[in-house]
Specification:
258 residues; alpha/beta; eight-stranded parallel barrel; globular
């Protein structure tokens, strides 16, 4: 790994969380376009399967929070979902925004921007992702598959070995213990077991320190951090040498890191 002074001179890739979701409605084409306009190095979106086997970009398993329609995504067709208003909850000017398909999202991602695809359902979505990506203009080296379910990430690696995949994890302390889990060793064991390329960690600054980051890197894996909107946390993570920082505010955070 480079010495600390070199880490401090490097701005890691800035990834727009659900697009530029501080300024635009999350997981909409408007949000992804805005993140790209703001200079994000990559954008991240969440994906589910619909009732008719299409891939739609929404975070929750129910459409209510962002559309007002209280129905599970798995019970809605893509036509029904695209008829919903997924933008007015953020601002009336976004009233025409709808939950887009994976193909529509990939179509707005230029060749110089990374795309982080978070799987929010089970491994049954993986073959469909493969099919959509195979006919997309997006190159395999632009794509990153991410998810909290280790078995889903293992399935993605088997189906799409040319695409990097990262296991996501938060941190929590077990009752009666001060140390939060998983430890760096436990993370590394999981990554090895599922064939992942690295980990995406909740930016818990009580856990992610130099020893943690160094252990992940020394084991041959990447380490990414989410969701970081505070400049002081972003600067600390930059100085530790993380491989990317995901934020709701790409332009704001990049400016502060410079």
């Amino acid at each position: 790994m480079p010495p600390r002074e070199l880490k401090q001179n490097r701005v890691p890739p800035i990834i727009g969380h659900r697009g530029a979701s501080h300024d635009a409605p999350e997981n909409t084409l408007a949000s992804f376009r805005l993140a790209i306009e703001q200079g994000a190095d990559g954008v991240e979106g969440d994906f589910h399967l619909t009732a008719d086997g299409q891939i739609v970009c929404m975070h929750d398993s129910n459409a209510k929070r962002t559309t007002g329609v209280d129905r599970p995504i798995v019970e809605l067709t893509i036509a029904e979902l695209k008829a919903l208003d997924a933008g007015s909850w953020k601002d009336p000017r976004f009233a025409r925004e709808y939950p887009p398909t994976l193909a529509e999202v990939l179509d707005v991602v230029p060749a110089n921007v990374l795309f982080y695809l978070e799987i929010k359902c089970g491994a049954e979505i993986v073959p469909m992702i493969r099919s959509v990506c195979d006919v997309s203009k997006t190159k395999p080296e632009q794509l990153r598959i991410i998810g909290f379910d280790a078995e889903v990430i293992a399935a993605a690696r088997r189906a799409m070995p040319e695409v990097k995949a990262f296991w996501l994890t938060g941190f929590k302390a077990l009752e009666g213990e001060k140390r939060k889990q998983p430890s760096a060793g436990e993370v590394i064991a999981t990554l090895r077991a599922i064939g992942a390329n690295g980990v995406g960690c909740q930016a818990d600054m009580a856990v992610i320190d130099d020893a943690f980051v160094t252990a992940i890197h020394d084991a041959g894996f990447e380490i990414h951090a989410w969701t970081v909107d505070k400049p002081e946390d972003a600067k600390a993570l930059r100085d530790l040498g993380v491989d990317s920082i995901t934020t709701n505010r790409p332009a704001f955070l990049r400016q502060r890191l410079r």
